[in-house]
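Service request form, structural biology core

Requester: graduate student, group of Dr. S.
Request type: structure prediction, single chain
Budget code: on file
Notes: please return the result as structure tokens.

Sequence provided:
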Amino acid sequence: MKSKRPHQRDFPDKLYYKIGEVSEIAGVPTYVLRFWETEFKKIKPKRTPSGQRLYRKKDVDLVLKIKYLLYNKKFTIQGAKQHLRGYKKDSEEKIPAQTLHEIRSELENIRALLMLKEGKK
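Core staff response, request fulfilled:
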């Protein structure tokens, strides 16, 4: 069984979800979803020609994450926005140039030691 984050839930595996379905999955009214669309620009449901919202799986996952942050962690909307912006940055952390230089230097020292050791044999 996969380990899940607290905000993740099982829901039907479909290509698109209507706003009513997302409302049921997340346990929030549809007007809350429409409000979150205006506040969180990452929620971008596709629109049909008649204007009906169709959410993708990634949108539903994001809605669940936002609900978890707002309702369980008691974040403000601004705090949740900041957390979501920082959330992606944390997973794509870059190693500072100084650290890379130190690692390279150490590896070169190890190679030199190995070359010396092989030369003595």
